[in-house]
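Narrative of activities, Objective 1.

The group set out to show that a structural description can be obtained from nothing but a protein's sequence at a throughput compatible with the screening campaign. Below is one input-output pair from the validation batch, recorded exactly as produced.
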Amino acid sequence: MNKIYAFLIIIPVIALLFFKALAFYEFDTKQRYIKNTIDTAAHKVMITGVLTKGDKEELITDLNKLGDFTEESVILESGSINSNGSVAGLFPYTTGGILDRGEVFSIKVQSKNESLTSRIEGNSAVENGKLYYRAKAICRVEKKKTDE
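Output recorded for this entry:
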């Protein structure tokens, strides 16, 4: 009788916990890679003060290795900083626009596809219980001013 309980109760519970752990590991790993990818793009902008069309295409190509990202799922914004250090406001950034030293640049991404964790758990409070891959990077442009 004890063996029956083991097969009917304990082993399925262990299997369920194993699959949940795998799904969370997959979600966490992809989130880290996505965050690292947009941090790299933001760092380029921090140094150069510009995000070219080629840089954006490269960013989307790298992100598509990890999920389903389109041109619309990548939001680029720029703005300025108040004297107290807070962001004054962010406005849409056009690719190729040159930012001055001290301006703020922001990248936000969200995948089109739902994560495996969401399909198993389905407990996110946003987006009707769906959990997507998201990341955000903000930097202040540090390029040197050039004489014109």
